[in-house]
Each structure stands twice: as C-alpha cells, then as structure tokens.
Amino acid sequence: MIGKKVIETEPITIAKAKDMLDEISDSYEPTYEQNLAIEHVNKFSKLDAEKSLELVKELEELIKQTQAIKIADLMPVDMADLRLIFAKERGSHKKEELEQILEIVNKYRE
Fold first, then answer.
1. pTM of the entire predicted model
2. Which ranges constitute the DSSP H helices of 60-89?
3. Domain assignment of residue 58, given as a range
4. Does a structural domain hold residue 5?
5. Does 34 fall in a domain?
6. What is the dihedral of CA 100, 95, 81, 42, to 10 degrees?
7. Average pLDDT of each block of 10 consecutive residues along the chain (110 residues)?
8. How many domains, in total, are found in the chain?
C-alpha cells in the first residue's frame, strides 16, 4: 500500500502549503480531500509564502521553529492571542519577549 510509512516530517506554514497545493492543482485534477485543503488554506492564509518564511526565520531567533510557524499562521493581534499560542508550552515567556514577538509580527501584517 502506498503511503503507509512516514519517512520524514517537516512543519510548514499555511502559505507554503497553499503554494504546494496550487502546484498540484495545476498538474492534475485534485481529489476531494485536496479540494478541501485548498479551500482551507485559501480561507486562512494571511501572508504569502515568501513573507511567511521571512517572518518564521526572524521569529526563530527568539522561539522554536514550531512556535514561529504557528505564530506566522495565526498572526496574533495582541498579547492575549499570543499567550494563547504559548498556553500549552512548558515554561513561560517574559513580557518583553512577547512584546518583541508582537513587534516582529506587526512588521509583516498586511
């Protein structure tokens, strides 16, 4: 059976997933599930792939890659939104660090 074993995983932003799905849909007719995924990424993608990659790279200087990708996908507006993203994480972030993250996110907001 094809696709039974996962060889490697890499977290990506919604914007990058959108580009990948657009490439697939250009090559052939997408399946029902792929159409649902395309609809989802079109609805929730807030940045283009290039800007989201730049944002993630800048955020990675402060936080882990998975957290940076989540922030790039959600683009939190205020401190409360940002705290919700980190709610399940171990440890706590200082208020200054959270403010710095919001400052970086606001630079990329469209």
1. 0.82
2. 65-74, 79-85
3. 49-108
4. no
5. yes
6. 20
7. 76 90 86 90 88 92 90 91 84 84 87
8. 2
